[in-house]
Design goal:
The protein is α+β, with helices and mostly antiparallel strands and 145 residues long. Among the domains are: 12-63; 100-142, no CATH class. Helices cover 36% and strands 14% of the residues. It has helices at 3-7, 15-32, 38-47, 54-63, 90-94, 139-142; strands at residues 106-116, 119-128. The chain has a two-stranded antiparallel sheet. Helix 3 packs across helix 4 (54-63). It is elongated and about 85 Å long.
Length: 145
């Protein structure tokens, strides 16, 4: 008889049996709440009185393939496989460093913002490349001397 068996309390469950019970309870929680990840499952187990580490719950959920599938939180707004004409990037050939003065080149930005479900709207903006803020970077301050 091992020392652990001798000192285990009389009503306690054997270690292997406890792991099986934990796996069954984790599976039951995931089936009851399909959107729960390992963090929520760990909190639910703690509410039920289980003393278990989140890393152990994550390992068990990985082994049993019980991790929830992530849903995409973005909407595809660009259709690059269209049949329309595409225009070349003229500044790529001339070089960005060739710009010497103000108002020689402008860029446009269209940003899609979803205000309500299923109805994207967009914000258009035009801005000069030199002489102002563009893309969150001030060109005058970003050059190293």
């Amino acid at each position: 008889m091992t020392r652990a068996t001798y000192y285990r309390p009389a009503g306690a469950v054997a270690p292997g049996c406890e792991a099986v019970l934990l796996r069954e309870r984790i599976e039951a929680i995931v089936l009851e709440f399909p959107g729960y990840g390992y963090r929520r499952v760990t909190k639910q187990l703690e509410r039920e009185g289980w003393l278990v580490n989140h890393k152990r719950v994550l390992r068990i959920m990985r082994e049993e393939s019980l991790l929830c599938q992530l849903r995409r939180r973005w909407m595809r707004t660009t259709d690059s496989a269209h049949g329309l004409r595409t225009y070349p990037n003229l500044l790529a050939h001339a070089g960005w460093r060739a710009l010497t003065g103000l108002d020689q080149a402008w860029v446009a930005d269209i940003t899609y913002v979803r205000w309500q479900k299923g109805s994207p709207t967009w914000r258009r903006s035009w801005m000069p490349i030199r002489g102002g803020w563009w893309g969150g970077v001030c060109p005058a301050r970003s050059t190293r001397r």
